[in-house]
Specification:
The protein is an alpha/beta fold. Helices cover about 35% and strands about 15% of the residues.
């Protein structure tokens, strides 16, 4: 999962490793890789593990005769810009966490992917032809399109409409747009809870409202149970919940509008204040100390927090659907966890029947991209086309516990765990929050959600300041710097 909010998503501790997926060595003469060349892939392992990509790579090798060389890099995201700028030892394909990839586009570092999205890509290796058109007639997971006979669907048909806009950008504010990145994950985020601990204080079902959440915390504390485990070293994990409250109050459309940066007024959205008020009431006492938390949360990282949670030291943790893969080795036998829809705050938007609209903070997710000057751009595109086949989208969800932003029903996948099913059901039944922007200020000036504070300080500021004061600080900063930001994109 992180850093900036989703640069933290899926973070995990891993060692740098290189893995050859192996094909028949007789088909890889010295100096020639596989019989059809070599494909070098760098990927961030983290909470998704590596089973999904190793399985797909082996099948791709078998189908194409291309030697796939996988490198798991703990700093793949942090190193991506430097790697692209150096233009040396480039991988052919990069799977990295969320970051401002528009900078890569602006500097002409990436290969466009429009032919993958519109179905025009095709590559032939021996008897195998790989295209970016898909047959979903045998899949029970996908929405179908009868006008195309279910056999000729493109990624523009299969990917969630909200996400399609995310990967669509231009090199400059005036140039034509294209697709530049491919969705890798679409995290289901929020509050994961210990089913048995919540039942022990009378919550057979998780808290549905913010008031119930406060009540649950009080009852847990009365029993000597810490309500929340969290790590201050990656305090941005609380953004998963806080942004959910913001979108509940203001509406998902208005939340998304923030990223359009139409004027400094977007920083004045009342939903931001309401969301930070909820955070402060939940976690900070009258003396400015942390409450409802494990001991010394600021000194911990997200992995320590997750471990404390699965060891039963706390009843809840702000995180996402990747936690089961991330800390699976620490989960004791019989431990049951699930994800709850973010409890609804007072004043949340409702549907026509008056029911609060359930939102799921999926953010932008993580992505794959192809360096423009890579040695094997075609094979990299072929791999992406190959891995987007329905069976591999299903494989990804089944092995990682995470959805991808496709029009499919991941909760129906056979063999997923009960925890994953809770995440997939939440994902399917919610209005999804996509971080989509067409704003040059967002693309090229790199202005963030909590500018100028960042998640690392916006929450700690609440220990001594009111949410209104903190939000006013950000709003005043935006008004002061707006003209400067505009000049940065000219």
């Amino acid at each position: 999962m992180l850093k900036k909010i989703l640069s933290l998503v899926l973070c995990g501790t891993l060692a740098l490793s290189a893995v050859g997926c192996g094909g028949d060595s007789t088909e890889k003469p010295d100096g020639n890789g596989g019989k059809n060349g070599t494909l070098k892939i760098t990927y961030y392992k983290g909470g998704t593990g590596d089973e999904w990509i190793e399985t797909i790579a082996k099948d791709f090798e078998k189908a194409t005769g291309i030697d796939v060389q996988l490198t798991a890099d703990a700093k793949a995201t942090e190193n991506a810009l430097v790697t692209l700028e150096s233009n040396r030892n480039l991988p052919d394909l990069m799977f990295i966490l969320y970051t401002n990839w528009c900078k890569y586009v602006q500097n002409d570092y990436l290969a466009p992917l429009g032919d993958l999205y519109n179905g025009e890509f095709s590559a032939t290796y021996g008897d195998t032809t790989i295209t970016s058109k898909y047959n979903v007639t045998d899949s029970t997971l996908y929405a179908t399109d009868a006008s195309k006979g279910e056999k000729d669907l493109t990624l523009e048909d299969l990917i969630d409409n909200g996400y399609l806009s995310y990967g669509y950008a231009s090199k400059t504010a005036e140039s034509e747009k294209d697709y530049w990145i491919m969705p890798w994950t679409s995290g289901t985020t929020g509050i994961v809870y210990n089913v048995d601990l919540l039942k022990s204080v009378g919550y057979e079902n998780p808290p549905a409202t913010y008031e119930e959440l406060l009540d649950c915390c009080n009852k847990l504390s009365d029993k000597g149970i810490s309500p929340f485990a969290w790590g201050g070293q990656e305090i941005a994990y609380w953004d998963f919940v806080v942004q959910g409250w913001w979108a509940q109050y203001s509406g998902v459309d208005k939340w998304q509008n923030f990223y359009q940066f139409e004027s400094p007024d977007v920083f004045k959205d009342e939903g931001r204040i309401k969301a930070l008020e909820a955070f402060k009431e939940l976690l900070i006492d009258d003396k400015g100390e942390w409450k409802n938390s494990i001991s010394a949360p600021m000194g911990r990282d997200h992995m320590e927090a997750a471990q404390q949670f699965v060891m039963g030291k706390a009843a809840m943790v702000p995180t996402g659907s990747w936690i089961e893969t991330e800390v699976g080795e620490f989960v004791p036998e019989g431990f049951e966890m699930a994800i709850m829809p973010t409890p609804v705050i007072e004043g949340a938007k409702t549907d026509e029947s008056g029911k609060p609209i359930q939102v799921c903070n999926t953010e932008a997710g993580d992505f794959a991209c192809i360096p423009k000057n890579a040695d094997n751009v075609e094979a990299a595109k072929a791999f992406l086309a190959f891995m987007n086949q329905p069976k591999y989208v299903e494989l990804f969800t089944k092995t990682t516990g995470m959805p991808r932003p496709f029009n499919y029903k991941p909760s129906t996948i056979e063999g997923i765990t009960d925890f994953t099913k809770s995440c997939m059901s939440y994902y399917e039944d919610s209005v999804k929050m996509w971080r989509v922007s067409s704003s040059p200020i967002y693309y090229y000036a790199g202005i963030g959600l909590w500018e100028p504070l960042g998640a690392s300080t916006v929450y700690t500021n609440l220990q001594s300041k009111s949410p209104e004061e903190v939000c006013n600080m950000m709003s005043q900063n935006a008004e002061k710097k707006w003209d400067t930001w505009l000049k940065m994109i000219q």
